[in-house]
Amino acid sequence: MPLLKKSPFVRRVPPQGLKPTDDIFFLPLTNEVFKNYDDFFERTIHLNSMVWSCAVTGRSGLTFEEALDSEKQANASLESFPEFLEMPLLYLVHKFTYRGRLDDLVNDVFTFMKERYFVGEELTFVESRKKKRARVLNVMYIGPDQNGAADDAHPSEDDHPS
């Protein structure tokens, strides 16, 4: 629900004792019912004021309807976010929390993730001039120089005869 002064919107309870013959004012945006036109009008003005914020993104200065749309779009984006990236991303954000600005944090995480593969990630590669699809099942860390020669390239002192 959209936020007003950091508090979620609360719908009014329908008036008690409504009869089928009573005149009412219905607000479709919030599914609220009003007996009094002044209350209906006041609520309509309030919903159209740019004082609302999106509970998901934190965007502010929105009308109620804009905040509602923003929440729907943000939730749709979250639903389409790849599940295999959730844990690695949360881990990286946790490790980079010393960054003062959000832009710096985003850049650090992007820089780290753009050149790596993650378990569960789907890939397209070319083999024998044909595109093929694959899924990453395992990731191995090779070493600092990324070619496997880090530990074996330099003999230790134990390997030299005295």
Descriptive account of the structure:
The protein is of the alpha+beta class and 162 residues long. The chain folds into two domains: 3-80, no CATH class; 83-135, no CATH class. It has four helices and seven strands, in the order ββββαβαααββ. It is elongated and about 80 Å long. Mean pLDDT is 85; it is low at 150-162. It is found in: Nucleus.
Structural class: alpha+beta
Overall outline: elongated
- Which regions are unreliable across 5 or more consecutive residues at pLDDT < 50? 150-162
Strand numbers in spatial order across the main sheet: 2-1-5
Order of helices and strands: EEEEHEHHHEE
Please count the beta strands (DSSP E, at least 2 residues each): 7
Distance between the termini: 76 Å
Radius of gyration: 28 Å
**Count of discrete alpha- or pi-helical segments spanning 4 or more residues:** 4
The domain count comes to: 2
Mean pLDDT: 85
Strand content: 5-15%
Helix content: 25-40%
Largest beta-sheet characterization: 3 strands, antiparallel
Organism: Plectus sambesii
InterPro entries: BAZ1A, WSTF_Acf1_Cbp146
Subcellular location: Nucleus
GO molecular function: DNA binding
